[in-house]
Write a structure and sequence with these properties.
Layout lengths: L3 H6 L1 H10 L5 H40 L5 H34 L18 E6 L12 H8 L2 E2 H8 L5 E2 L1 H21 L3 E3 L4 E2 L1 H7 L10 E2 L17 E2 L4 H5 L5 E4 L5 E10 L18 E11 L4 H18 L4 E5 L11 E9 L4 E12 L1 H6 L1 E4 L7 E2 L1 E9 H11 L7 E2 L13 E2 L16
Parallel strand pairs: 4-9, 8-14
Antiparallel strand pairs: 1-11, 2-3, 5-7, 6-7, 9-10, 10-16, 11-12, 12-13, 13-16, 14-15, 17-18
Helix pairs in contact: 3-4, 5-12, 7-12
Length: 451
């Protein structure tokens, strides 16, 4: 959430930056200026009336000590009390309107973010690796996975509906291997602390990271506590998490950390659940846009003056995963019109998929500055000062496991339809070096009775 005092003092700048994000908010911010003016007028009148009331209270006390008539002053005080209560209600209502308005506004882009209206205006700032070429027609991951018996979309649809997949045999092991490999890399080499958070969160948590109230339709809400009502943030309702960013960031909600604790670097492996509202008809084949997928998330809490460097570092940590697996990728700096709601600057890492002949996002690494911390009330106490300040939050995928999985299938496919396992994953794959068609689909266990 944006800082009220900042918006009030820098309204033209805020308008300019929001226009750069292709947000039609000019009329909303004009309302902001009028609401804020009305509020300040009410507060000014309140201060005047309270001063008058205090003066009258003193006069009444003096008159009563002198045993003189104070009826007129008492009546004036009663009338002032009624007017004061009315103005207090007006000011409180204006505060609520300003707060609700601020909740709808996205974060402001940093100066280094390029202008643009869509993904076509994003800027490639780095390339790694050479896209693989084959002497045979490259296949997409869904064809490879189904032919090997490691992916089954039809049975998943029978069990749960569209946009789900079942992994069998070596495919299930590959998913698990990737998660363990990523966690080990981030913990042992990059110094993150692993967290296993709840997979369900309450409304206040989703508000803290910016998913509510704007993006409720993109989430799965449990009906154990009744329907979600916008504007009513509960602590006892439940939502399936869209990303580990939500529970991990909210671990410190309503807390003040010591400066000596920063930066804090956490990583978490969780399932993620997204309704994909508005994406029907897009990426209907394969594992690109699923309702459930697994991800290793990286989250940092940092001092404001260090958040830019920590953002670069977190992005680099995500890149190391791709480089260690030998997967070609590019780093894209998102333009103002393509950034997420809470972000002030975002890098997307896009992996090359030879079976589809395109790059696909596999990680999104964002600096939120104080936007989430202000919504979640996460502060830190700088050394030598008494007043706490909002810290900065940074997060990114390190990586999306399912998309890394499909990138391995497409980049490491062989002419006979098998998949070569990247060297870094062999220790996690029971020393197997190839994913073949054998022993993947459920088979009779050894020792089972025969017909």
């Amino acid at each position: 959430m944006l800082d009220l005092a900042f918006v009030r003092s820098n309204l033209p700048l805020v308008q300019e930056k929001l226009r750069a994000r292709s947000v039609a908010v000019a009329s909303v911010l004009e309302d902001f200026a009028q609401i804020d003016l009305d509020r300040r007028d009410a507060v000014t009148r309140l201060e005047t009336l309270k001063a008058q009331r205090n003066k009258l209270t003193g006069e009444i006390a003096t008159l009563r000590r002198a045993k003189s008539d104070a009826t007129a002053q008492t009546e004036q005080t009663r009338l002032l009390k009624t007017e004061v209560e009315s103005l207090e209600a007006t000011a409180a209502a204006a505060d609520d309107r300003l707060r609700n308005l601020l909740q709808t506004l996205p974060n402001l882009p940093q100066a280094s973010v390029p202008g643009g209206a869509s993904e076509h205006d994003n800027v490639a700032v780095k390339h790694f690796g050479t896209p693989a070429t084959f002497d045979f027609p490259a296949k997409p991951h869904w064809e490879l996975g189904e032919s090997l018996g490691i992916l089954d979309f039809n049975r998943a649809a029978k069990v749960s509906g569209s946009r789900f997949v079942v992994h069998f045999g070596q495919g299930a092991r590959l998913e698990r291997a990737l998660a363990n490999f990523m966690l080990d890399l981030h913990i042992t080499q990059h110094g993150y602390t692993e967290v296993l958070p709840p997979f369900m969160v309450n409304s206040k948590s989703l508000f803290g990271t910016g998913q509510l109230p704007k993006f409720a339709e993109d989430l799965f809400h449990c009906d154990d506590k009744g329907a979600y009502e916008p504007g009513k943030l509960q602590e006892s309702d439940h939502w399936l998490i869209p990303t580990a960013e939500v529970p991990v960031t909210n671990l410190f909600r309503d807390e003040t950390l010591d400066e000596s604790q920063l930066p804090i670097s956490l990583c978490a492996y969780t399932p993620c659940f997204r309704s994909e509202a508005g994406s029907y008809g897009k990426d209907v084949r394969g594992m690109i846009r699923q309702h459930q997928f697994q991800k290793v998330e990286l989250v940092k809490f940092a001092r404001p003056e260090e958040s830019e460097a920590e953002h670069e570092l977190l992005t680099r940590h995500a890149e190391v995963v791709l480089e260690t697996l030998g997967l070609p990728y590019r780093r894209m700096l998102l333009c103002t019109g393509d950034m997420g709601f809470s972000s002030s600057k975002t890098y997307d890492l896009e992996v090359w998929l030879p079976g589809q002949q395109l790059y696909r996002e596999i990680s999104s690494c964002s600096n939120f500055e104080a936007f989430q911390a202000r919504r979640a009330n996460i502060r830190y106490k700088p050394a030598g000062t008494r007043k706490p300040e909002y810290l900065h939050t940074i997060n990114g995928s390190g990586l999306a496991v399912g998309r890394t999985y499909l990138a391995i299938l497409e980049n490491y496919q062989q002419a006979n339809g098998t998949i070569r396992i990247p060297d870094a994953l062999i220790p996690y794959m029971n020393s197997e070096t190839v994913i073949g068609p054998q022993n993947n689909f459920p088979r009779k266990p050894s020792g089972a009775p025969t017909a």
